[in-house]
Amino acid sequence: MKSQVNDILIEISWREIAIQYFGKSSSWLYHKMDGLDNGFTPEEATKLKESLIDLSKRIKNCAENIKIPETNCPTEVPN
């Protein structure tokens, strides 16, 4: 599983994913991602997929709500 999420591996708080979406500890999720404890069940893999999709939507909504201030460029002062 780690190779499948390599692109975002260090960008995501896997601890928060484990707690918020699975109700488990970060070590539980890390073990699953490392293939320990028989890795993810199909249901757990689906839940991980859905949690990342949910997080991506939340990030997108946050980004879309950022208000870009108008530039306040001072006008050039004549000599």
Q: What proportion of the residues is helical, as a percent range?
A: 40-55%
Model regions low in confidence, pLDDT < 50 over at least 5 residues:
none
- The 3D shape can be described as elongated
Proportion of residues in extended strands: under 5%
Classify the secondary structure makeup into a structural class: mainly alpha
What is the succession of H and E elements?
HHH
Number of strands: 0
In short:
With 79 residues, the chain is mainly alpha-helical. Helices cover 51% and strands 0% of the residues. The protein is built from 3 helices and no strands.
Outline the fold blueprint:
Elements: H1 14-22, H2 26-33, H3 42-64
Helix pairs in contact: 1-2
Question: Can you put this structure into words, describing what you see?
Answer:
With 79 residues, the protein is mostly helical. Helices cover 51% and strands 0% of the residues. It has three helices and no strands. The longest helix is centred in the C-terminal third of the chain and has 23 residues. The radius of gyration is 20 Å and the shape is elongated.
